[in-house]
Specification:
Number of strands: 0
Order of helices and strands: HHHHHHHH
Distance between the termini: 73 Å
Structural class: mainly alpha
Radius of gyration: 22 Å
Helix content: 55-70%
């Protein structure tokens, strides 16, 4: 996969499930979990309904995993049916990724969270602008990226990081009403 596709995939993961970043990478030893656990009875009725499939194993889950699942259930409960359909599709895509690709995305997620706020905003701005492109424009952009050498790509990234985030286009203020001549 080329870098732009990876960036898009990473954004899908970001938008899909922040809890995925907390999922354990089997190649990395687990850090001690100091997060307080949540008793099943502390979940509200909607969270219990959403997490019903986890009821039998709930008490044996690590506390951090319980927290992440409870937060995810809360987000799920607040989603519209359209948002849920998108999230389910993203989850299906995530599950089909090979473990090495998931590991790469988790690493990108980790690196993203280490960025200064200005760079995060720059990435979010670029992604919003990318989403507004037509499919044809996106494909041209992807093709242009594919044709660049690694050095050209690096220079393009560095140039982009030096520019300020672009503000959304704003409509000009309406003109004041015309004054009638006196008399």
């Amino acid at each position: 996969m080329n870098r732009l596709t990876w960036i898009l995939a990473a954004w899908l993961v970001l938008a899909m499930a922040p809890g995925l970043a907390q999922a354990q990478d089997p190649a990395r030893p687990a850090a001690p979990d100091t997060t307080p656990g949540i008793a099943w009875d502390q979940l509200d009725a909607e969270q219990q309904r959403i997490l019903a499939g986890q009821r039998a194993a709930w008490d044996s889950l690590p506390p951090g995993r319980q927290q992440a699942m409870a937060q995810g259930a809360g987000r799920w409960a607040s989603m519209t049916p359209e948002q849920r359909a998108k999230a389910e599709e993203r989850w299906r895509k995530w599950r089909t990724l090979p473990p090495d690709e998931r590991a790469k995305l988790r690493e990108r997620w980790r690196r993203y969270h280490q960025l200064p706020p200005e760079q995060k905003e720059l990435l979010r701005d670029d992604f919003r602008r990318y989403q507004q492109l037509s499919e044809e424009q996106r494909e041209r952009l992807r093709e242009r990226w594919r044709q660049m050498t690694p050095e050209e790509r690096q220079r393009a990234v560095e140039r982009r990081q030096q520019r300020p985030a672009q503000q959304p286009m704003q409509r000009p203020a309406p003109a004041p009403p015309a004054r009638r001549p006196a008399g």
